[in-house]
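Components:
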Amino acid sequence: MSDSGLIEASLRTDQGRVRGRNEDFIARWEPENPTDEAQHGRLYIVADGVGGAEAGDLASSYATDRTIHHYLANHAEHHAGERLLGAMRAANSDLRQLVASRGEGTRMATTMVAALIKGAQLYLANVGDSRGYHWRDGVMVQMTRDQSLVAQLVEEGAITAEEAVLHPHRNVILYSLGSERSPRIDLFGLTLQTGDRLLLCSDGLTRYVTDEELAAILSEGDPDTVTAALVDLANERGGADNISVAVLQIGDLPAGGINISQAADPQIVATNSSRPRGSTAAGRTVLWIYTAFLCLLETILILLVWYQLRV
Ligand code: CA
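Structure:
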């Protein structure tokens, strides 16, 4: 845990109770002096790797290391959020090169949620279904949007949020680093206030703990206590997946921070989607198959009803 006065942070990752390895990865980059603080801010990352064997571990750790490397190296970009997006795009290219070097048939990809805090400004970049939440005065809001099949089906009205929790394809993500040349990466922005809290986590936590429970636990105790309580709760309820949690407590913010946005609520400030949503990758194929299956089922039911009415 670090306590710089500006931010008290606790990051915790746990293998869970079922998986043989931990494919999640958590990381922080914090400045050593005021010059670095002014130039780079602070970076906190949760990544959830997929790929089997050691590939998932490598995907999440490698993509995180490369994101931090590219972020620190790119002094030319003055917009902090764009600089973070650029770093994640570059890490995606690095990861794809690594996949290519390991030969055909290698599958390596990772989700990533990255929080960049510079002065009072927060940028949250997200690809996949890990999440970032903002908490203020007891009210918690999920800032990121899940890039998952079930989230898209809920958004389109095909299923309810309750059905999504038990959906057979709830693990299918639409975008990730490593899986395609130009994955969609969303960027959200918010002006922080003293006393705010942030929570970054992998789906190993959110599959077991509701938003209401997260808000209640986040409201009590210091960041170390909160991350321990959340990991324990996910394990008590099954721990079927790796569990990663980062909790950041915002302390005294510097006067004259770079308040480039006065938004009281999280706002999406950019996305690098180069194609319409739902156009590529395995998750979207499953979406089409699922939709076609529903149409077929509907047609059969209509024919059955029609037949019953005739006889
Ligand atoms: Ca996971």
